[in-house]
Design brief:
Length: 71
Amino acid sequence: MKRDLRRAVLFMPGDSLHKIEKATGLGVDSIVMDLEDGVALGHKDVARSTVLSALQTLDFGRSERLVRVNP
């Protein structure tokens, strides 16, 4: 099985659509949208909606899309 190495993995807070949008243009290998400790406790619901919207509407190009969930 071939595995590609990730040179750059960028973590973005899931409650900031602006930051996620900006990350899509940086050419990183992976963009991690954080729903855990990168988001204030009171913003978790907004972050979930924001990440869902980003996944449905933004062009991530060749960047891998990952979501760090809050169990």
